[in-house]
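Lab notes, practical 5.
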Amino acid sequence: MIFPIHVFKSPGEYIEHKNAKSWGLKSVYDEAELDQALANGWFLTKAEALNPHKIPADNAPPTRQELEEKANSLKIKFDGRTSDKRLLQMISEELGHGVD
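Output from the prediction step:
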């Protein structure tokens, strides 16, 4: 990325006339400033700032709680000795998916 760049946040001092939303912008001058701004609710584009309610991509593996909830909803029998890996495999088999 070439610095400086602008990041955006809503609400702010500028008005988006077509939808009456406001937005602000600021310049960041290096990767550390960019990371800090993004962590504090700033976005790389004005469109993201004006529509922040989109669900972010989640590439994290499921938590144990999520695995147990899904297994229970599918009526899969397991206990505390069932590993997360095995539980994920059982869920995937029940859903007709393979696990890599």
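Observations recorded by the TA: Helices lie at 31-39, 46-50, 64-73, 84-95. The chain has two domains: 5-50, 64-95.
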